[in-house]
Structure formats: C-alpha cells, structure tokens
Fold:
Amino acid sequence: MSIKTENGASRQAPRRLNAEAFLRPETTLIAVILAIGIATAFRNPNFLNVGNLTDIARAAVIYFVMACGASLLMIGGGLDFSVGSVFTLGGITAAWLMAHAGLSWPFAIAVGLLVGTLAGYANSQVIARLHVPPIIATLGTFFIFTGLCVQITGGQDIVPLPKDFQRLGQGSVLGVPFVVIYAVVIGFIAWFVLEHTPFGVEVRAVGGNRKAAVANGLKVKRIETVLYMLGGFTASLAGIIYAARVGSGQVSAGGSGVTLSVVTAVLIGGISLLGGLGSITGVAVGAILLSTIDNALIVAAVPPQYNTIVVGVILIAAVAIDHVRRERLYRVRR
Amino acid sequence: MSARSEKADGVPEQSGAPALALRRIGKAFGQVKALARVDLAAYPGEIHFIVGDNGAGKSTTLKILSGIYQADEGEVLIHQQPVHMRDASEAHRHGIAVVHQDLALVECLDVATNMALGAIPRRGRFMLDRARMERDAAEVLANLKIRVGSVRTQIGLLSGGERQIVAIARAVRMNLPIILLDEPTAALGVRETAHVGDILDELRRQGKTVICISHDLEFVFAHADRITVMRLGNSVATLMRRNTTRDEVVGMITGTIEALDPERAGAA
Structure:
C-alpha cells in the first residue's frame, strides 16, 4: 500500500535498512549478554545451571516490571527519579496492611498499588502545576516518599507476612517462578499499549515533539499525567512482588540504588532520554543484561567494584549509540 | 465527508456568509501589543491570503484562529456564531484544519502516523488500526499526486520540502471545511510551490474556506480571491484580488498607501 517512486524508492531503501538495524539495539545487547555468558561459563561452568539462570531471570523481573512504566514515561518525554522510593512505599504499604491491619492480601496489594499510582499522580501535578522540571520534581518526591516509608515503619522491617502472600513471590509452576510470569504479562501489556493502541502512538508523539502534539490537538497534559501514574503503578507493583519474594516489607529495599538501576536498564534498553524512541523488548533485554552482569561477576568471582565499572561503561556506550542512531535517523536540520 | 466534518459543518453553507470571521481582535503578550485590531471574513470556496511584513501579526492571527492563542478582545465567529476555542482540538471540532509554520510533525514517527495524529483510526475501542492508517495516508497522498517514498518513511528522513507537503496533506486528509496555512511554500522550490498552488485551487473547487499566510506575492496573486493586508497588528485592508495590484498591496504592507477605498475593496 505504499507509494513508491523510481527515485524515491531507491533513495529511501539503503537509509531505511540502516535505520532498521540501528532501531534494534536488542541485537547488540543480546550479543553482549552472550559474550558475558560465554566468558563466565569458561571461568565457572555453574553459571549455566538451570538454577543460576533462573536466578538471573528472577533478579531481572524487579528491574523490568518497574522499567515497563518508566519506559512508557521516558518515551513520552518524562523522567521519574522517585521510582526507587515508590517501590519501597508500595511494598511497605501492602506489608503494613497485612501485618498490622489484618487486611487480606488481595486488598493489601490493591491499596499498595493505589498508593503507588497516587504517588505518580503527585509527581505529575508537581511538574504540571508547579512547573518544576521532572528531574527535580521527582528527586524531591523521592526524598519525601523515602521519609514517609521510614515514618510508617519506624525504620523496622515488617514481618511476618501471610504465607499465601509469600507464595505469590516464591512459588513456581513447571520450574518457572511466578515472578517471571508476572514480568512476562506486564511486559506484554506494556508492549501492546505502546505498539498497538492509539494511546501508544500519542505517547511517542508527545515524547518525540511535544509542541507538535499540542498543535495536533492531543491532550498532552492528560497523557503525561497517565504516564506518571503508570510509572508509580509499576514501581509499587515491583515493590509488592519484591516483598512477597523476600517475605517482608523492607524499608531499606528500593532507594536510590533501585532508581538508578531502573533508569540504567531503560537507557541501556534503547529508550531515548529525549523521548519518542525505544521499545519494551529492548528494555526487557536491558534488564536481563543488568542482572546477568550482577550474576556473572559473582559467579566468576570478580571483585564487586568491577560490576559498577562495567555497568557504567555499558550505560555510556548505550546512550552514545542512541545519539548516533538519532543522527542517522533524522536529517540534521540546516 | 467524514462524520466529523459533517458535525463540524452542521450549519449549512450559505453563500454570502463568512465561514470564519474575526471581529476587532486584540492580543497582547505582556507589554507587547501583538494585535491591535484585526477584522477578517473568509468565505467558502475562496482562497483568502493574509499578507504583511514580519511582525505584522499574521502568525498570531492564525494562532488565534486555530485555538492555540486566545484573543484578549474581540470575537471569533464560525458560521456567524461566536466561539471560544481553548486549544487546538477545539478548533478541530469546529471544523478547522491547520498547517503550522513549524509544520508540527513528529520526526520519530512515520508519514502515515503523522498524518493521522489527532484522529488516529481505531479497530474496536482500544486497538490501533495501522492498516487503515497507512491506507488512508497512501490514498490522500496519491489523490494529491504527492510522492514521498513509502508512508512508513519516518518524517526525520524527509527533506524540508517533503515535510511541508506531508503537513499540507495531513490537513487535507482531515477533510474539514476550513483550512489554515501558515507560509506553506516557505521551504519549497518552484515546482513544489506550483504543486501547493494546485492543491489550494482544488480545495477552493471543493468549496472549502482556505486562509493562507504568505510572503510570496507572486504565489498570492496567482491563487488569491481575497487578500487581507496586515500592518503593525492591524488589518489595514481586505482587497479582492481582481480589483487590486501588487503595487497597491506592497504599498499597504510598507505603509506608503494608508487609505482604503471601501468600494473597490468590496469585502468585509
């Protein structure tokens, strides 16, 4: 159904091929994961144990679930540094309601998710109404939410949590941990929303060129509010999954480390900080790469400082590639 | 015509009544008075050009017509009914399609998606109908004899002229009764400019109300029915093209001709 002209087709084809290759950062990331895997397996064959590979997947889940919301948000041109604290807030809220208010786990989870979503709403309103840039607004709320978590718990971890709730995080079916199944479902939904709904198209439009989106009559502020709420939702969901997995509401879980890991997974996965570009599959591979590095360096008995060095190098490389991608994708305006 | 344009076009077109009018519009940005007094009346089946020097208030006028700015004083009338548009989507609902000077295209999206922005086709309630989106875009481009490679080409890959044409095609695709264009030929060569002129002529034949800002007086005189001259935030005259000359229009733009002979103007 496309219109092709003799010169048009020949002119576009080679560029388009390059663009396609560059649009798929997954390819590069998978190559990096395989390289790390092979190198580690040579040093310690245990790396390839089913148990160890399952551990890698399980660790990637937490990053990935959070990254789903964070990716949509970043593709829409937003940024959320508070995810690490919303992660804790969601887990703690659900845990506190179960342990101290005697609420059944489905209600506790629902309230935990609601609190996370409201935290996202708060972020969007600080940005939209007080005109605070996203990076500062969410850094501010990061500290506020972290403080709230300590206030709620008095600094103590919340135990014990109901067995049924713990099974949600620790159980498995046919050897596949439940948490991996959650991640696949959440990832599928996020992918579907981004690639196959009008909302997903509008998110890319807002992130790609906000002024154009406004001029085309898109409800940009509403879209941005929804995106921050989705970011809060997935952050609290990840926090609740984590609480179920470890069997306690940990006030020290989350924090700035988790925020930075999620933002790193999203960027490594090929989401552009400038908005518009990126895919959920890329982010899934990015999250697996992060947890593979974590795991590989432990299994290969490499000193831990190398972990952060490697992550830093990969992050910089990923963003540098993003720049090259944009240059190749778009004509430079004269 | 689509359901939207029928709705927007609910009032039947009456020849002789303006489809879109501005009455005594004033607009200030802080201390700067961008528009002092602007009157304008644009009719169905006509191409109405707005000309004037840089800073005369042409783009501000167009942004008020398209709902992006709100006037401080005066009225916007659509089919003689006063309307208050708070954003671009309301202008769209009132039957107004706009081609902005900066084109308002999203570089990272393809041609078909850009052409559908603001009215994305759905399958069922939530699904994006990409096949229809691409079909619609290809059809509009083919009808307008526009060649930009594939409709899946990203806007970022197109040249300035190609982008301009896509932005115009998008406005035409909306099939709304009123079309506003801000400097549609600014980035175009001779052949492409002629092509845009053909598109405007075709819109006139279809009975659309076309309002166009342009610096290019040759283009203006080749296609205009009516010409409104703006100077220092005022609409100083509206002239029928057949009753005026380039010299007169240039004189009004620069201010060397001040007086307007209302009889010869024969317009609002």
Remarks:
- Residues 62 and 223 of chain B are 19 Å apart (CA to CA).
- Chain B touches chain A through 47 residues (CB under 8 Å).
- Chain B has a mean pLDDT of 86.
